[in-house]
């Protein structure tokens, strides 16, 4: 990538699709795209649940209970490798997947439109 960002597996596949080095039929691409949307919805629901875990109480007033409460809250949100951030990294990958799948049915529609426009101008042969 030109901005110094490392190229990921799915970004590499997107480049391959742009170069016509990767092919997928439109129906399969559409089904994969829709599955990605559904998966992202589930991941976002899990993120919401994880955000709510930062407010779990009931560990008592003793120092050890408060420390445990803090440890578990940070595993949910804000700590190293917390659940919200891990789920976001999964969402980011699935978004990259969607870009690849979108190329296959978008380009098919673009070619169909161009062909239809040519037929309208020139008429059938």
Helical fraction = over 70%
Radius of gyration based on Cα positions: 23 Å
Task: Determine the structural class based on helices, strands and strand pairing.
Answer: mainly alpha
Oligomeric form of this entry? single chain
Name the average pLDDT.
Answer: 86
What's the N-to-C terminus distance?
44 Å
Overall body shape: elongated
Q: Kindly estimate the percentage of residues that lie in beta strands according to DSSP.
A: under 5%
Order of helices and strands: HHHH
Number of strands: 0
Per DSSP, the total helix count is 4
Stretches with pLDDT under 50, minimum 5 residues: none
Major pleated sheet: none
Q: How does this model look, in words?
A:
With 125 residues, this protein is an all-alpha fold. Helices cover 74% and strands 0% of the residues. It has four helices and no strands. Helix 2 (26-53) runs antiparallel to helix 4. The mean pLDDT is 86.
List keywords for this structure.
125 residues; mainly alpha; 4 helices; 0% strand; elongated
Short description:
With 125 residues, this protein is mainly α.
Question: What's the SSE blueprint?
Answer:
Blueprint: H1 9-18, H2 26-53, H3 63-76, H4 83-122
Helix pairs in contact: 1-4, 2-4
């Amino acid at each position: 990538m030109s901005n110094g960002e490392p190229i990921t597996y799915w970004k590499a596949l997107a480049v391959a699709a742009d170069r016509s080095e990767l092919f997928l039929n439109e129906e399969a691409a559409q089904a994969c795209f829709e599955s990605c949307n559904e998966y992202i919805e589930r991941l976002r629901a899990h993120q919401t649940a994880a955000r709510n875990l930062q407010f779990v109480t009931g560990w008592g007033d003793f120092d050890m209970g408060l420390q445990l409460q803090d440890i578990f809250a940070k595993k949910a949100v804000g700590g190293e490798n917390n659940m919200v951030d891990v789920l976001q990294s999964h969402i980011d990958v699935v978004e990259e997947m969607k870009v690849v799948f979108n190329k296959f049915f978008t380009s098919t529609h673009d070619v169909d439109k161009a062909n239809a426009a040519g037929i309208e101008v020139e008429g059938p042969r």
